[in-house]
Amino acid sequence: MTARTTARGASTQTLGWVGVGRMGTELVRRLLRGGHDVALYNRTRQKAEALAEEGAKVADSLAELAGRDVVFTTVGSSEDFLDVTVRPGGLLTGESAPQVIVDCSTVSAESSALARRKAEERGTMLLAAPVSGNPKVARAGLLTMAVSGPREGFDRVAGILEELGAGATYVGEGEGARTVKICHNLLLGTVAQSLAEVTVLAEKSGISRHAFLSYLNKSVVGSVFTGYKTPALVNLDFKATFTAALLRKDFELGLAAGRDLEVPLPVGALVHQIIQTLVGRGYGDLDFAALLALEAEGAGLELVSEEVDVTDGLPPG
Q1: Which strand (E) or helix (H) includes residue 16?
Q2: For FRET with 151, which of 71, 124, 188, 282 sits at 20 to 30 Å CA-CA?
Q3: What are phi and psi of 74, to 5 degrees?
Q4: Could you give phi then psi for residue 143, rounded to 5 degrees?
Q5: CATH number among 3.40.50.720, 3.40.50.740, 1.20.1070.10, 3.40.50.280, domain 15-174
Q6: pTM of the prediction?
Q7: Per residue in 71-112, pLDDT tens?
């Protein structure tokens, strides 16, 4: 079934959103700017109220969102996801249930499958749609997502998903999108560690970080990722966009999947231990770009912010 749209192009489906942390906030703003009817629930109500000034409605409980056509969730862990879906007071436990739930979090395939079974019992279509990118990327409209679950559900919300970023890729039924996102983040962490290593090597050789990274970003191995991490590496701004602790969680999910499927992940296992060291050294709540600081410590290099105004390569949001 294809949803009707208004003259402004916004779907007439009523939307709910659970979890308005850094990522959820940016995505909700995109929907509000598109003219959608969005109601929010967040355990810390104050965060949701900040979006009320931009046109969102604030719900006092998950039950108030259960009657919405489509509800998105962006939560921090598998346990949080089960709390907001299948546990007492969750979206799937009351008199009403959404027609579609779109989970944009990175959670385990096991917890997603459990929620999917409950959703099917309630006649709800559950889509796994973990997002790839950080809040700054979301603000710039470059966020991407892999989506799995009922094709009918994907077709119903495809237009809304396109508004959230640069595109949504349907990868099949079941929990396939969870695997795609975990594979993505295994590569993300590995690239970040390699980037930290070569940047420290260049600096200890006498080359400034901003000059080295400027060159790298213009080369064939430069990417959107190396570009938007450049200001953080040059000016040592490790304010979290995606914390080291969350990256560790994703590596643990990836290594567990590798064990289950008998796929060796030797590089992933090594980088996991480096990230574990990063967290153990007190960087867990900082951005995983702090891998640079850990690498510099190992090299006996004292890092100093270069205080250079460098671009992140992202278009303004």
Answers
A1: strand 15-18
A2: 188
A3: -135, 95
A4: -65, 145
A5: 3.40.50.720
A6: 0.83
A7: 999 998 899 999 999 999 999 999 999 999 999 998 888 899
